[in-house]
Automatic annotation (TrEMBL), chain A:
One of its GO terms (biological process) is L-valine transmembrane transport. Belongs to the AzlC family. Keywords: Cell membrane, Membrane, Transmembrane, Transmembrane helix, Transport. It is a multi-pass membrane protein. InterPro entries: Brnchd-chn_aa_trnsp_permease. The keyword Transferase does not apply. It comes from Thauera terpenica 58Eu. GO terms for cellular component: plasma membrane. The chain crosses the membrane at residues 16-37, 49-72, 78-97, 135-157, 164-184, 204-224. It comes from the Bacteria. Pfam families: AzlC. It is found in: Cell membrane. This is AzlC family protein. Its main location: membrane.
Automatic annotation (TrEMBL), chain B:
The lineage of its organism: Bacteria, Pseudomonadati, Pseudomonadota, Betaproteobacteria, Rhodocyclales. InterPro entries: Brnchd-chn_aa_trnsp_AzlD. It comes from the Bacteria. Keywords: Membrane, Transmembrane, Transmembrane helix. The chain crosses the membrane at residues 6-29. This is Branched-chain amino acid ABC transporter. It holds the Pfam family AzlD. It comes from Thauera terpenica 58Eu.
Length: 234, 108
């Protein structure tokens, strides 16, 4: 009989497969984008291995290109990774009883797509072996596919003519990431306030305008949500 | 451009934000709970951050605000394409196509 772990692994990969297809252009674009700002192949692959967070990598590239200070690069990566704090809180019960090293590896591997498939059924499952298989198999699968296709972009970038303004791919990628988030009004307010704040405060030294914009955006979104709720209650 | 040892240090620091955020509650185990007000505020961080990176690139020409530039026009193309079609490659192909056409074809 098939073990619960293997059954979970098979079902997890099957549920994750459609999501992973949408991920392929991201991986290729991330690879090309890292090269477009001037990282060597080794640096690009190293960044991808260490950071393993597409959004944070793409977001940090303009700052790295501009020679921004390290703490600003880190703070921006942190802002782009903050959603994982929420995911982590939601998915933590899945790892009940697991060793610390297992939890550490699982943390590194946690990505949006795997969280999306695990969020409801795997977290509430009573079978620790099944839910572990359901988490770890698509996570490892995603890691392999991501590393492979990013490498494809990294080594393919040199075949693209250098006067093609490829760095604009970073901006396109960031736009495509933010658009689906803007379905609610507070989210739209947060994005507009954050973006316009960064534009208006562009004169601040050390590219601090970006961090100031992020803070303004979070505050504006939170305030907009508050007002919306009060209006609905009235 | 950040280079050499500083660049690798930047990667390590970024890596710490990856592990730190993803591992926050997974590593804490069942001990931690996230205050709900904080959880609600954090939801706005990604949209604010992405937009704070995108809008300056689209709206600024050097240091001055000028919405009439090839990048902004290409940005409009990306928004329309991304909202209209679900194909994940299309915004990249048509957005880059629009930018290249304006820069090279029209010399803008």
């Amino acid at each position: 009989m098939e073990s619960a772990f293997r059954r979970g692994a098979r079902e997890g990969v099957r549920d994750f497969l459609p999501i992973s297809v949408g991920l392929l252009p991201w991986a290729v674009v991330t690879g090309i984008a890292m090269r477009s700002i001037g990282l060597t192949e080794l640096e690009a692959l190293g960044m991808n291995l260490l950071v393993y967070a597409g959004t944070a990598q793409l977001g940090a590239l303009p700052l790295i290109a501009a020679g921004a200070p390290l703490w600003l690069i880190m703070l921006t990566a942190l802002a782009l990774n903050l959603r994982f704090v929420i995911f982590s809180a939601a998915i933590a019960p899945l790892f009940a009883g697991r060793r610390w090293s297992t939890r550490l590896l699982s943390s590194y591997l946690l990505v949006d797509g795997v969280f999306a498939i695990c969020a409801d059924k795997a977290v509430t499952s009573d079978d620790p072996q099944w839910r572990w298989g359901y988490y770890i198999a698509p996570s490892v699968f995603n890691w392999l596919v991501w590393q492979l296709f990013v490498a494809g972009g990294v080594f393919g970038a040199e075949f693209v003519p250098s006067d093609w303004s490829l760095e604009f791919m970073v901006t396109i990628a960031l736009m495509v990431l933010v658009l689906p988030m803007l379905r609610s009004r507070p989210m739209l307010v947060a994005a507009l306030a954050g973006g316009l704040g960064a534009v208006l405060l562009r004169g601040l030294p050390l590219r601090l305008g970006v961090v100031a914009g992020i803070a303004i955006g979070i505050a504006a979104g939170f305030a907009a949500e508050h007002w919306q709720q009060r209006r609905e209650a009235a | 451009m950040t280079e050499g040892l500083w660049l690798w240090l930047a990667f390590v620091l970024m890596s710490m934000t990856t592990i730190g955020t993803r591992g926050s509650f997974i590593l804490l185990g069942e001990k931690g709970r996230l205050p709900s007000a904080l959880q609600r505020a954090l939801r706005y961080a990604p949209a604010a951050a992405l937009s704070a990176l995108v809008l300056p690139d689209l709206l600024l020409d050097g240091a001055t605000v000028s919405p009439f530039n090839p990048k902004f026009a290409a940005g409009v193309v990306v928004v329309v394409v991304a909202l209209r079609w679900r194909n994940p490659w299309l915004p990249f192909v048509l957005g880059m196509g629009a930018l290249l056409m304006m820069r090279k074809g029209l010399g803008w």
